[in-house]
Amino acid sequence: MTRFLDLVHPDAGTALMSEWLTGTAERSRAAAEALADEWAAASAPAARLAQHVFRAADGTGLLFYAQWTSDEAHLSWARAHRPQVVGRVDTLVPGIERPGLVRTRLERSVVHDPVRPAGVFEVITTTPDAVEAATAPAPGLLGAHIHATPDGERAVVIAEWSDAAARTAVAPTPLPRSLIVLL
């Protein structure tokens, strides 16, 4: 399975995260396929360095992780092309909820185990003061990748776990519906 650092593009000036709430696994699959078709039909903008889609563990949503050269390049593309791309997806899968795009920059990574494959990623939104707790060594926590928002008020940590059982053993609270994504 893929490790998060294998997805990181060294020239990325910004990392964008967007959650799409679809409601069911079938609608998530359909939305992901429709978007993949849109990406394949159009030439990729040079400023978009990477785009990845992850499915929520319960199937009810998608997480998009995109890396661009800059926020300005993304905004320019979004103004010109996003409405028609998303509009076609919405025609095929109406009613997708999009809580919003989060602009971040990968600040640093903490890798506890560089060898074992990751089974799940957990996306944690927290304050900068709470990052250390989210990245502290724990059984099954392979690594954590800290993203800072431009205003410095929030941090988004993408934690790599060996599997969902390891995450649950460390933090027995219920897994957030849309925040655990399978690779």
DSSP helical segment count: 4
**Spatial strand arrangement across the major sheet:** 1-3-2-8-5-7-6-4
Low-confidence segments, ≥5 residues, pLDDT <50? none
Q: How many separate structural domains? A: 2
How many β-strands, per DSSP? 8
Describe the sheet with the most strands.
8 strands, antiparallel, barrel
Order of helices and strands: EHEEHEEHEEHE
Quaternary class: single chain
Q: What fold name goes in the CATH topology slot of the largest domain?
A: Alpha-Beta Plaits
**Integer average pLDDT:** 90
State the helical fraction: 25-40%
Quickly name the level 1 CATH class of the largest domain: Alpha Beta
Can you give me a brief rundown of this structure?
With 183 residues, the protein is an alpha+beta fold. Helices cover 28% and strands 33% of the residues.
Task: Describe, in plain words, how this protein is organized in 3D.
With 183 residues, this protein is α+β, with helices and mostly antiparallel strands. It folds into two domains: 4-92, 2-Layer Sandwich (Alpha-Beta Plaits); 104-182. Helix content is 28%, strand content 33%. The chain contains four helices and eight strands, in the order βαββαββαββαβ. It has helices at 25-41, 71-92, 131-135, 164-170; strands at residues 14-21, 48-56, 61-68, 101-111, 120-126, 141-148, 155-161, 180-182. An eight-stranded antiparallel barrel has the order 1-3-2-8-5-7-6-4. α1 crosses α2 (71-92). The longest helix has 22 residues, at 71-92. It is globular. The mean pLDDT is 90.
